[in-house]
Records
---
Amino acid sequence: MVMRDRITIIEGDITRQTVDAIVNAANTTLLGGGGVDGAIHRAAGPELLEECRGLGGCPTGQAKLTRGYRLPAKWVIHTVGPVWHGGRHGEDDLLANCYRSCFALASAHDLRSIAFPSISTGAYRFPFERAGRIAVRETQQFLAVNSTVEKVAFVCFGQAAYVSYRQILEELIG
Ligand code: AR6
C-alpha cells in the first residue's frame, strides 16, 4: 500500500477510535492526569490505572504498553512527551523519540493500526505545527521500513488541529 493511504487524519476523540492501539500523552508517573490522559483513563476504567501502577513510570521520550480495558482499542501505548522550554533543550529529539518508541512497540506486538494524539501540544505547550511535522516525519520514516502497520491515524482535537495536520501532510507527503 502506498504511504499516503496508510496515514489518516481524523477530527475527534481518541478514546472512541477502534484501532489496535491508541497512544496516550502521559507524564513520567504514568498515574494519570488531565487532557488526553484523563480522557483515556476515564474511558478505559480503573483497571488501566491498576496496570499502570505496576509499570514504575516512564522516562520522557520512551513508551510502555498496557491493555485497553473498556476502550474500543485493545491496547494503550503510554508515552511521555517533553515539556516545551523554548526549543533549545532537546525538545524536538525527545518528541521524535516518543513516536519512535511507540512505533517500536507497535512493531514488536504486530499491531496493524495505531492512533496518535498530538503529543506534548496541550499542557506541555510544544508548538502545534512544529510537533505535527515531527509526528509526520517519524511516521513516514517508520512506514517506509515496516510492513505490518497498515494504518496510522492522527486524531485531532478540534478543527484548527485538523486543518493544520492536513496542511503538514500535504507539505511533507503530498
Ligand atoms: N482526543 C484527542 N486529542 C485530545 C483529547 C482527546 N480526547 N484531549 C486532548 N487532546 P495534553 P501533553 C489533545 O495536554 O501536552 C496530562 O495531564 C489536546 O488538544 O493531553 O502531552 C498528562 O498527564 C492536545 O493537542 O498532553 C501530562 O501531565 C493534545 O491532545 C500532560 O498532560 C495533547 O494535550 C501531558 O501534556
Note: The radius of gyration is 15 Å.
---
Amino acid sequence: MTATVGVERARETLRERFGAADAPAAVASAPGRVNLIGGHTDYNDGFVLPAAIDRRTVAAARPRGDRTVRVHTTDFDATATFDLDGIEPTDEATWSDYPKGVAQHLLARGHAVGGADLALVGGVPMGAGLSSSAAVEVATAAALTAAHGVDPGDELVDVCWEAETGFVGLSCGIMDQYTSVHGEPDSALFLDCRSRDHEAVPLPADEATLVVTDTNVRRELVSSTYNDRVATCRAAAEHFDSVLDHPVDALRDVSVAEFEAHESTLSDSFRKRARHVVTENDRVRAATSALRDGRLERVGALLDASHASLRDDYEVSVPELEAVVDVAGDLAGVYGSRLIGAGFGGCVLSLVRPDAVEAVTDAIETGYRERAHTDPDVHVCDPAAGVRHHE
Ligand code: GLA
C-alpha cells in the first residue's frame, strides 16, 4: 500500500466510523525503519545506523470539542475510546496503548491537545522488528497535535519514546522513534543516541538494496527478555564505573581495550552482553565510514560480524533467523546480513547488490521454506523520509 492510498483510506475511515464533519482532518504518516547496524546499542547511549523505510502508517485526526478520544484502527478493525483526563493502559497490552500513551505524554509535556476522532491505517508489518509501534506513535502524535494547532517541535521524538517506555513499558532506546521522525530519503542516519545528533549517510539505490526477510516467527515474552538485557547492561556499566578511572554512565563509555583489560572481573553472562555492546559500537563507526567510502563489501562483513555477536554474545537469535542468515550467506550479490530489531524472531536485513535482488529474493524464499517449513515474507525496501503531514 502506498502512502497516498493509506492517506485516502484514513480519511475514508474517519468518515465511515465517526461520521462527516465540518472540521477538516489533519493527516500525517510516519515510517518504520531498518537498522543497518548497531543492535542493542541505543539504550546503552551508543551508536546506530538506521534508515526509515518506504512502509508508512497513516493517522487522520479530527478535533472534538470535548476531552474524548475515539480511535479506530483498520489493522484490527477495532475501535477504542478514552478520556484525556483519565488515561489508563488496558490490562492486556493492546494496540490502543500506543495512541493512549502518546496522548498522555503530549499532555504531560504541556502540549495542549484536546479530544479527537482518529483513524489509523498501518503500513508497517507488525511484530517484525520494523518498528511498526514507533510508526503508530509518531503518526498519531503528529496528526493529533496538528488537529489542535499544536507544534511539538523537537519534542515529538521524546513524546513517542516516553509513550513506549513509560506507558507501553518497553525500556527501549531512542532509535525507532528518532528514525521515524528524522529519516531521510536515499540515506541511513548515523545517530549518536547520547547527544541525539545524526548525520545522513547516503545509501544510493544503484549501489545497495535493503532486502528484509520476515521469518514470520513471533516469540512470546520478547519485552521481558529485552528489559532483562537492558538491566544487565546497566549493571555491567555500573561495574565498569567502579573499576575504571573515568566515569561510566553507560556501556558507551567503555572502549574495547578497557573491556579487554577488565573482562575477567565479570561473570560469564555479563561479559558476553558487555562485549557485544562495546564491540558493536566500534562496528557501527567502522560501517559508517565504509559506507561513506562506498566500500560495501566491508559494510557487509561488519553486518555479518554484528549478527554473529548478537547470536553468540547477546543471545537474541533463534533458529529461523539463523536459517535466513545461512541461506543469504551463500548467495552471490549479498554483501552481508543480520537480524534486526530486538531479536527472538522477526526479520533479517540483507544488504544486496541491486542487480542481484530478484535472484536473492527467490533463493531466500526457497531456502527458508526448505529449512523452516514455513513461508517468509520478503520486503525490498527503499530508505525514505521521516514523518510527513499530508494536505
Ligand atoms: C528494538 C527497540 C530499539 C532497539 C532494538 C535493538 O527494536 O525498540 O530501541 O533497542 O530493539 O537494536
Note: The radius of gyration is 21 Å.
---
Amino acid sequence: MQPGPRLVGKVAIVSGGASGIGAETARLFALHSAAVMLCDSNAAAGERVAGEIVAAGGKAMFRPLDVCDEDAWTALVAAAEKSYGKVDVLANIAGISGRDPMMNIQTGQTAGPRLAEQSLANWNQVMAVNATGVFLGTRAVIQPMQRAGGGSVVNISSICGIVGSHSNAAYHASKGAVRIFSKAAAIQYAPDRIRVNSVHPGFVDTPMTKPGHANPEVAAKRLEATPLGRFGTPADIALGCLYLASDESAWVTGTELVIDGGMTAN
Ligand code: NAP
C-alpha cells in the first residue's frame, strides 16, 4: 500500500504497539501520516517497531506502559500531548489471552482453563489487562480530546466479545466488557465529538495465536469455522482501525466492526 493522506495532522496513541495487530496498526497509522506514540509492556520490541517506522520516514516514539497502571496512563497521555501538541486517536490494542502457556492446546478447550478450574487470579489478570486497561486508556484521553475539539477511540474487542466458545470465559467476559463499555463511552462523549468504537477480530495470525495455530488439529478446526478460508493478518485488522481512526468514519460511533472472515455470520 502506498502512503496516503488518511491521517494527516493527527496524533495517535497505540497500546500493544510492540507486537501483532498493535504493531501493524502503528505502522499503518504512520504510513498515513499520523504522529504515533506506541506503548506496550514489551519495551524492546516496542522500541524496535518505533525505530522501523522512523527509519521508513514516519513519525513515531515508544514509551513503556502497563495498561493496568492508572498513573502511567496519565503520564503517557501528557507526554504525547507535550511531544506532538494534542491527541486525536487512541487505539487500545494491548491484550492477553489468559492461556496457561503450559496448557496443551490439543482439545476443544483451546485457550484457557474451564470455568470450574479457573482461578480468581487468572480471571482478575485477564479482566485487568483487557477490560480495565481499556477503561483507563479511554478515560485518560477524554480531556485531551476535548481540548483538541474531538477524537476517535478504537477499542479492540474480539469475536469472543460477541459469541461464546469453549475458550477462557474470562477472555470472553473481558472482551464483552470492551464492547459495551465502548457504546456507553460513545454516548457520553458524542456531544464532544469524541467517537468510541470497538473492533472484533476473528482468528488472526499473531504471536498470541501462534501456539494454537501451530497445532494442525486446532488450526484446521479454526479454518473450518472461517468461511473465507484463511486466518486474518494483522493488516486486515489494522485497516479497520485506520477507517475508524480517520475522518472517513466521522458519523460512526458506538458501533462494532467485525473483521472475522465471516465466522460470526454463521
Ligand atoms: P500480541 O501479538 O500478543 O500483542 C499483544 C501485545 O500487548 C504484546 O506486545 C503484549 O506484550 C502487550 N501487552 C500485554 N499485556 C500488557 C499490559 N498489561 N500493558 C501493556 N501491554 C501489554 O497479540 P495480538 O494477537 O496482536 O492481540 C492484540 C489484541 O487483539 C488483543 O487485545 C487481543 O485480545 C485482540 N485479538 C486478537 C485476536 C487474534 O486472533 N490474534 C483475535 C481477537 C482479538 P507481551 O508480549 O509482553 O505480553
Note: The radius of gyration is 18 Å.
